Amino acid sequence: MEVYVGVDWSAREVVCSSAQGDEPPRRITGAKRTFADVQEFIERVGLRHPNAEEVHVIIEAGASGWAEMFHHAGAITHVVDPKQAKAFGESVCSSGAKDDGRDSATLVEMGRSPRHRPAVWSPDIELRAQLCELAAVHEMLTKNIVTAQQRLRSHLRERFPELEAVLKDLTLRWVHRLLRTVPTPRHAQEMTKAALRALMARSGVHTKTLDRIWVVLQEDTAPWLTEGLAEAQATHVNALVGQIEVLGLQLAAVDQQLDELTADLDLRKNLETVGGIGTKMANRLLRFAFDFERAPEHRDAVGIQLGACPVFRGSGKTRSGKLKGNVVMRRTANHRARATTYLLGRLASQQLDWAKAMYKDAMGRRQAPAHAYRRIARSLLRILTAMARDGLAYDNDRYVAALKAKGVGWADDISPAAA
Fold first, then answer.
1. Residue pair 32/12 in contact by the 8 Å Cβ criterion
2. Could you read off the pLDDT of 99-121 as tens digits, one per residue?
3. Bridge-partner residues for 34, per DSSP?
4. In 10 A of CB 384, how many CB atoms?
């Protein structure tokens, strides 16, 4: 016989309820966030329910560490979507009362319902776990770099506005070289044109940009800047520039690790045969969309995971036979996965001829660009699913010919030879 344990988690501990058979859920002392405590908790569940052959733990998503500990402690773990758990709770109790104990009891009832109980959770294979960990670091560093750039730009806009207007990308090495030498208008007054050219030699800066910088350095003066104040502001600029440089080096190292991690995967090599899919996008698809061990079950499985396939909400039909309701975005997909869908559609619309034609058709229908990108991504994901299933490279001419054979109107003007 099975025993079901509902687990409501926090950062440091869990609140739990358990039940066996038809008995009502009862609170049981939870556990701290250590593997030893979780093992001891599973033993206590066994003592409370001595006839139990299996212990099923139902826990809300968002705490993979807890799920891993319960799994390795011997429990059959089920991870549920918080929105589904909330909706289920509202369906069994209309009072609106809510606390950790009630939430854990609700999860017990959800686990006992075969219709609502999610599939058994299992840890990612090592390769995917490494990919997800490195991708999380990449996202963190990217966010930190953007924040550091914003701080530097804000400072320059306040202290050196004319130069800030010229510097479009604050991550470039020549920009850092310039700002370390000329961090304030007072330092600019000490710069000669020959010294500027020598400083920027072999830096990659365009000649026209260099001329604009020289004009700015001559015109943007700040007579109120004393030598001491200028040096203080220079320290501020150097600190911000140094932060961007360090983060950039760390990000480059993570990029290299991600590249090396998946470089030998045949699936990644096939994905990169599609125009617009490079190393970063291929790794995002490997992280969110494709299983390393088996091909997708059906053509829209990947689109559902990435939120590219919409959801219909409605009931009944009109007199003309049309369904009543509307189509909305699939919100249950991971928000980073949905962002991958948007980026994939946008890249495809820039690189693939059929995607460009599809985007043009969408604009003619007055669809929003984001909607158009999701449509394009859904079509491309079906192609990628077939590629993953059959182990084949991308064939643009074959897809364009298939579109024309099916009588897709917007594909009539596409020339396969132009792919």
1. yes
2. 888 899 999 999 999 999 989 99
3. none
4. 24
For residue range 34-67, list pLDDT tens digits in order: 999 999 999 999 999 999 899 999 999 988 899 9
Whole-angstrom distance, CA of residue 194 vs CA of residue 200: 10
Q: Could you tell me if 57 and 70 are in contact, meaning their C-beta atoms sit under 8 angstroms apart?
A: yes
In whole angstroms, give the CA distance from residue 232 to residue 120: 59
The neighbouring-strand residues paired with 58 are 6, 78
* Dihedral sign computed on CA atoms, order 303, 304, 310, 312: positive
- For residue 380 the two structure tokens come to 């491309």
Instruction: Give whole-number Cα distances, 76 to 58, 71, 80, 265, in Å.
Output: 9, 6, 13, 31
In three-state form (DSSP H/G/I as H, E/B as E, the rest C), the secondary structure along the chain is CEEEEEEEECCCEEEEEEEECCCCCEEEEEEECCHHHHHHHHHHHHHHCCCCCEEEEEEECCCHHHHHHHHHCCCEEEEECHHHHHHHHHHHCCCCCCCHHHHHHHHHHHHHCCCCCCCECCCCCHHHHHHHHHHHHHHHHHHHHHHHHHHHHHHHHHHCHHHHHHCCCCCCHHHHHHHHHCCCHHHHHCCCHHHHHHHHCCCCCCHHHHHHHHHHHHHCCCCCCCHHHHHHHHHHHHHHHHHHHHHHHHHHHHHHHHHHHHCCCHHHHHHCCCCCCCHHHHHHHHHHCCCCCCCCCCCCHHHHHCCCCCEEEEEEECCCCCEEEEEECCCCCCHHHHHHHHHHHHHHHHHCHHHHHHHHHHHHCCCCHHHHHHHHHHHHHHHHHHHHHHCCCCCHHHHHHHHHHCCCHHHCCCCHHHC
Of the candidates 269, 294, 300, which has an alpha carbon nearest to the alpha carbon of residue 282? 269
Closest CA to 119 of 90, 84, 89, 91: 84
Per-residue model confidence (pLDDT) at position 416: 55
Provide the residue type at 388 as one letter.
A
Model pTM score: 0.79
Tokens of 8: 């409501």
What the block records as the tokens of 379 is 């079509």
